[in-house]
Design a protein that fits this description.
292 residues; Diguanylate cyclase/phosphodiesterase with PAS/PAC sensor(S); binds magnesium ion; 18% strand; eight-stranded mixed β-barrel; alpha/beta; binds ligand C2E; single chain
Amino acid sequence: WAKSAGKADYALFDEDRNAREVHRYALAQALPAALETGEMFLDYQPIVSLAGGRPPLVEALVRWRHPERGLLRPAEFIPVAEETGAIVELGRWVLERAVRDAAAWPQGPAVAVNVAVRQVRDTGLVHDVAAALAASGLPPERLCLEITETALMDAEDDRLPGPGTLRALAARGIGIAVDDFGTGYSNLARLRHLPATALKIDASFVADLGDPEGDRFAESVITSLVALAHASGMTVTAEGVENAAQARRLAALGVDYAQGFHYSPPVPAEEIPAVLERLAVATGSPGDSGLG
Ligand code: C2E
Ligand code: MG
Ligand code: MG
Ligand code: MG
């Protein structure tokens, strides 16, 4: 009995998996058209300076208002777009829109744009970035590209065009941030040789602060990463900061920037000037939220 039930379960599981694959494939196919019809949009989340005095930064996060499936988060369509290559076109759209929005905000924040490894390997990225900056008038110093730790290590494979691409971008004054740091399996010694200007500590370490089980380990990781990043000339941002206690701990540990619901959730472009205003007014210094 157990055996046959197991078999039935397995068939069900297979069917499920099939349905999910069909679903993913349909999304990937619909993606290029969605760029045309205006179903894609960007929300922006501020990244605030914990020490104060540094200019504000805002991260662009893509969303898809799907006519049948409702609001889709990036986790639902970015991975499949990477598989099919649609990410290159989507990435170009995100870049153009983000630098155009950033150029229009009165506080003049820098804008951080997430890029996939496939975009970094696409030899057109340097050209696309230059074209987007030229069209918007945004200076290169106000653009930062975020690439996940795992993707960056892949892109740094010497047999691929990746490293040249990132170095060329960094040489133009564009920031390069290592995203979700601590979730991959980097050789820490390699960090020093990457053309990165910023390290973003993954939200999981921030979440462990104050947790009786995880606190000591999270604190040691954060302390080490701050030392390592600063010794390599990089700034450090903590992701997923949700309360004042975390913000205070992070500031005390030497973290430079913080991002999370404690300051602001991701909001539409039109709301960014007011959100930056509120965060600046809280302390009288732009970028320092005073909420920490
Ligand atoms: P990420 O770059 O690490 O972005 C941070 C994610 O954390 C965002 O999720 C954001 O909404 C969420 N977040 C912000 N503050 C908090 C907080 O206090 N607590 C918690 N629990 N979460 C918080 P989102 O928007 O769903 O994006 C997920 C990921 O999708 C991003 O992670 C990024 O890797 C990717 N992504 C987003 N937009 C793009 C894009 O335009 N291109 C590419 N290639 N990837 C993108
Ligand atoms: Mg990011
Ligand atoms: Mg991240
Ligand atoms: Mg993340």
